[in-house]
UniProtKB/TrEMBL annotation:
<dbReference type="Pfam" id="PF00282">
    <property type="entry name" value="Pyridoxal_deC"/>
</dbReference>
<dbReference type="GO" id="GO:0019752">
    <property type="term" value="P:carboxylic acid metabolic process"/>
</dbReference>
<keyword id="KW-0456">Lyase</keyword>
<keyword id="KW-0210">Decarboxylase</keyword>
<dbReference type="InterPro" id="IPR010977">
    <property type="entry name" value="Aromatic_deC"/>
</dbReference>
<feature type="modified residue" description="N6-(pyridoxal phosphate)lysine">
    <location>
        <position position="293"/>
    </location>
</feature>
<dbReference type="InterPro" id="IPR015424">
    <property type="entry name" value="PyrdxlP-dep_Trfase"/>
</dbReference>
<dbReference type="GO" id="GO:0004058">
    <property type="term" value="F:aromatic-L-amino-acid decarboxylase activity"/>
</dbReference>
<keyword id="KW-0663">Pyridoxal phosphate</keyword>
<dbReference type="InterPro" id="IPR002129">
    <property type="entry name" value="PyrdxlP-dep_de-COase"/>
</dbReference>
<comment type="similarity">
    <text>Belongs to the group II decarboxylase family.</text>
</comment>
<dbReference type="GO" id="GO:0030170">
    <property type="term" value="F:pyridoxal phosphate binding"/>
</dbReference>
<dbReference type="InterPro" id="IPR015422">
    <property type="entry name" value="PyrdxlP-dep_Trfase_small"/>
</dbReference>
<dbReference type="InterPro" id="IPR015421">
    <property type="entry name" value="PyrdxlP-dep_Trfase_major"/>
</dbReference>
<protein>
    <submittedName>
        <fullName>Amino acid decarboxylase, pyridoxal-dependent protein</fullName>
    </submittedName>
</protein>
Length: 463
């Protein structure tokens, strides 16, 4: 074992050099990758070599081969798919997570990882103004966080109905009906598919994608019985928030479990100036969000928050002879997520929160929203550009006239690579969708981004 540190030293030193070189290049490099996946694949060895290679040489080869195919997601000019960058403390903490290599399932086996995650969870509940007694699970992302919240809801509803889900499964079980707005994210449908609950009942929404409480009440009255209601904190295209207080009241009056998909929008709850748009969200039963979006920690890290620890742990806990389980109040980490084995995702969350502090988190969230408003105002001043949504948080959706022109402008923007904004379709129209999620985006990035859109618009006149 005495030679073990030396075995890592050279490779880690090379990784440090390549990582810092990459980060130094991000502010000035094109955001888009220089090559596509097929081109990267062509540069890789097609046959595994028979003999070993020095670890440091492997790191050098890996960095050299990957660099042309890397998207500069950390760039302040990256606005695609609601992806944040990475805060310095969170990135460094993630390196330590890999070095420590803790399998974060059991409190007894990995006490440091468990305790740090519990601390991060308490800070998160306080910042988001959610019930302090809730359980927090650190998942792979918002899709699995939605899965966890809905699984806890399924467990609760089956227990209420007197159905032994663990022994009997879903065959012959009482039917659970799920209600969600027409403009829900597809991750909700995917989670329902995983859970064997089938398609949801779509509920009408307004022009910004907000569910209509009266439509929810009517739909639930037409299909009474055990039910899940999925609300949305942050519409994919408009950023709008469902009317939480009214919708939660409608659902709870009918005995439903209320789950909130807040992949990026739940973070608005930390801000005194934005929180009112989520009024009543704390009354839900479970919530899902991402830390690698608005909080800017490395991939991957979703957050599943459940107000009823009993329902969550009944859904995910398992007992076996080789586990040394804990009877402590916080429970074991594996009881709150689908995995028995996982990396300590919550440690970078703790580091990000510790770096920022309460006021830093609030300032970052409010700065993201302010940058979105500045982008919308700057783009609206360009002839031929129409901002389609009320910019209430961090999303901006724009059109350049016809669908054809919008598509051409979007393709030109991505080809140039000075910024990255993704195309989408919303309410029957082709759009350019802008998601402001990076902690490092500043006024210079906003100005450069507006200028890039102006160049693309001027190069693609209406046919």
């Amino acid at each position: 074992m005495s030679a073990m540190p030396e075995a890592y030293s050279a490779a880690l030193k090379r990784a440090m050099v390549h990582a810092t070189d990459w980060l130094a290049s991000v502010p000035d490099r094109p955001v888009r990758p220089a090559v596509d996946a097929d081109q990267v694949a062509a540069s890789l060895a097609s046959i595994l070599p028979d003999g070993p290679t020095e670890a440091a040489d492997v790191v050098d080869e890996l960095a050299t081969l990957a660099e042309p195919g890397l998207m500069a997601i950390q760039s302040g000019r990256f606005y695609g798919w609601v992806m944040g960058g990475t805060l310095p403390a969170a990135m460094a903490a993630d390196w330590l997570v890999s070095a420590w290599d803790q399998n974060t399932g059991l409190r007894f086996a990995t006490p440091a990882a468990a305790a740090i995650e519990e601390s991060a969870a308490a800070w998160l509940l306080d910042l988001l103004h959610l019930p302090a007694t809730s359980d927090v699970g650190f998942t792979t992302g918002a899709t699995t966080a939605n899965f966890v919240g809905l699984a806890a809801g399924r467990q609760y509803l089956m227990d209420q109905a007197g159905w032994d889900l663990q022994s009997l499964g879903l065959s012959g079980a009482p039917r659970i009906t799920t209600f969600a707005g027409r403009e829900r994210h597809a991750a909700v449908d995917l989670a329902l598919r995983y859970l064997g609950l089938g398609a949801c009942v779509p509920v009408d929404a307004d022009e910004q994608g907000r569910i209509l409480p009266e439509a929810l009440a009517a739909a639930m009255d037409e299909q009474p019985g055990p039910s899940l209601v999925c609300l949305q904190a942050g519409n994919l295209h408009s950023g709008a928030f469902d009317p939480m207080a009214e919708a939660v009241a409608v659902a709870h009056e009918r005995g439903a479990w209320v789950h909130v998909d807040g992949a990026f929008g739940l973070w608005a709850a930390v801000s005194p100036t934005l929180r009112e748009r989520l009024a009543g969200v704390e009354g839900a039963d479970s919530w899902a969000t991402d830390a690698h979006k608005t909080l800017n920690v490395p991939y991957d890290c979703g957050l599943a928050i459940v107000a009823s620890p009993e329902a969550l742990r009944r859904a995910f806990s398992i007992h076996t002879s080789y586990f040394i389980a804990t009877d402590a109040g916080p429970g074991d980490p594996f009881e709150k997520v689908p995995e028995l084995s996982r990396r300590a995702r919550g440690i970078p969350v703790w580091a990000a929160l510790r770096q920022l502090g309460r006021h830093g988190v609030i300032a970052m969230v409010e700065r993201l929203a302010a940058n979105a408003r500045a982008l919308a105002e700057g783009l609206a001043a360009i002839p031929g550009v129409e901002v389609l949504n009320d910019v209430v948080f961090t999303q901006v959706s724009v059109s350049f006239g016809s669908d054809d022109r919008t598509h051409r402008v979007t393709q030109r923007l991505m080809a140039e690579g000075a910024v990255w904004m993704s195309g989408s379709a919303w309410r029957g129209r082709e759009i350019l969708r802008i998601s402001v999620s990076n902690w490092s985006t500043d006024a210079g990035d906003v100005a450069a981004s507006i200028a890039a859109v102006r160049r693309a618009v001027e190069a693609e006149p209406e046919a």
